[in-house]
Amino acid sequence: MPPLEVIGAGFGRTGTDSLRAALNILGYNTHHMFVMLKHEQEQYPELFTEAYEHPEHDIDWDKVYTGFNAAVDWPTSSFIKQLLEKYPKAKVLLTRRDPDDWYRSVKNTIFHYAQQTDIFPDADDPNSYYQRLRKMAHTIIMDGAFGNPEQFLDEEATKAKFVAHNKWVEEYVPADQLLVMELGEGWERLCQFLNKPVPDVPYPRSNSTAEIQKFSENFHKVFENGSQQATK
Question: Does a structural domain hold residue 1?
Answer without folding.
Answer: no
